[in-house]
Amino acid sequence: MSRLTPGARHQHPVMDLCAHGHLATSAQLASLGWTRSQLAAAPIVRVRRGVYACAHVAGPLLTAARVGGALTCVSVLREFGVWSGDDRRVHVQVPPSASGRNSRVRLHWQPPRFAMDTPWRASRLQALWQAMQCLDGENAIAAMESAIKLGYLTEKEVRRLGAISVDRLRLRMPDLIANSGSGNETITRLRLLKVGYRVVPQGRLPGAGHQDLIVEDCLGLEVDSAQWHGEQIRALDYERDLISEGLGRPVLRILPAHVHGTWE
Length: 264
What we know:
The chain folds into three domains: 1-57, no CATH class; 59-176, no CATH class; 179-264, VSR Endonuclease (Endonuclease, Chain A), CATH 3.40.960. Helices cover 40% and strands 18% of the residues. The chain is built from twelve helices and twelve strands. The strands form four sheets. Strands 9-10-11-12 form a four-stranded mixed β-sheet. The protein has a three-stranded antiparallel β-sheet with strand order 1-3-2. It has a three-stranded mixed β-sheet with strand order 4-5-6.
């Protein structure tokens, strides 16, 4: 992402904002020659004192800017579809000296370990790193596996983060895989491994593709969700279940509610 460069001025302040990440300070815009009166007349938004944004900036990024920080952690992961747990607050990177509380946001005061994409948004590496420190162990591993699966980061990059992370994650790196089908599958697999079961993720079902998890080589465990299991897919699932049962491997299907609500 390019930065505002003195002298590299467009014909309109909106064009400068859009070209440089959609947010900028008044000092940055002044370095391009824009006066206060020109900024006041332009169709841009004054986010807070000394900060302007394109009119189309909205959602978590705008919330972070209004707080005076940068979008980070699970809020960035969520934009890319990466597993991010169940905390729906906006996560904001703020300077260590920042103060204030807001029930709609989760503030992170620790200085970024990795480079930021812009002053207003964490890089992919920094966002996942921050999420690994913020989430509980099983959700952090789920986020890491999801990041690999979706190509958000490479497996090498994710494992490098794990190797320098806190013990609760570093010690679980041998359990990290690159082919987990979903965050709920990851969490289910980790819980089964923790109590001593042998689990094969994305296990092969001869003649019918794969099953989410194969437990102790005798049970096909499918972790369903409404997102991926519409009527047409459900019919294919039942066909695969019949094949599995015919081969002597019974099938158990569970839902996210079982993972997050009634597991015990």
